[in-house]
Amino acid sequence: MDTSTPTAARTYPAAAARYTGGAILLHWTIAVLIAVNFAAAWYANGLPRADRMQVMTNHKAIGLTILVLSLARLAWRLTHRPPPFDPTLKPWEKTLAHITHTLFYVLMIGLPLGGWLTHSYFSGGKPISAFGLFNYPGLPVARNPALGETMGGLHGTFAWVLLALAALHVAGALKHQFFDRQREIQRMLPG
Ligand code: HEM
Ligand code: HEM
What we know:
Layout: H1 21-45, H2 49-79, H3 91-123, E1 128-129, E2 135-136, H4 145-179
Antiparallel strand pairs: 1-2
Helix pairs in contact: 1-2, 2-3, 3-4
One protoporphyrin IX containing FE (HEM) binds at residues 27, 30-31, 34, 77, 82, 97, 101, 104-105, 108, 166, 169-170, 173, 184-185, 187-188.
């Protein structure tokens, strides 16, 4: 009688299926900061000018923190192999996940850069206080409110694209987790 266990070959090794602790910490820190930055921008819209400026200063400082963390995340990604997808994932699902992840990196870096440029056109390159701890420099451009308006519009539009992508990303994670019964969210959770 054959006592071998052919199913063992298909078992998904728990340790290999998870992102590293550092990647997990970066993923969730960036996700929370992005949510906070949306909330700050929208909340600021309804405030009197002085309060709006204060909230927007924090929006900019948080956004530049997201930029720094996203660059660290990209560096991690370029130097590490992510854990393999669940073997039951269909090829089109893997392709969609790759496209979503790539667009995320583009937006996690491009969106703060666009905001930085918007600020710099409006202010003529004034520095940005990082919560009173130190200053980020402004980008070296001459004051140009018209370009600031244009960049600000693009910044807002791309923020919506990021939001749509996040909705797709979460829907995908929940589908795999609960409908396809794959161990998806555990890949991005510690423990
Ligand atoms: C991932 C990070 C960021 C997200 C998700 C984000 C999101 C947003 C959103 C949703 C708005 C409101 C747009 C609207 O009301 O139409 C906004 C406005 C703005 N953001 Fe950001 N932002 C980020 C990073 C930054 C950074 C790093 C800066 C500057 C250093 C910045 C500067 C601005 C400015 C100046 C506005 C007002 C634009 C205008 O009045 O036209 N943002 N941002
Ligand atoms: C705006 C917020 C978010 C951003 C920018 C973001 C970004 C990313 C990126 C870029 C990856 C790919 C990691 C890599 O291989 O380099 C990833 C993976 C993942 N994210 Fe998010 N994420 C966000 C929110 C969420 C939320 C709310 C959930 C919860 C359902 C989630 C669950 C996951 C899971 C489970 C993975 C690993 C799955 C896989 O490899 O396909 N993410 N995320």
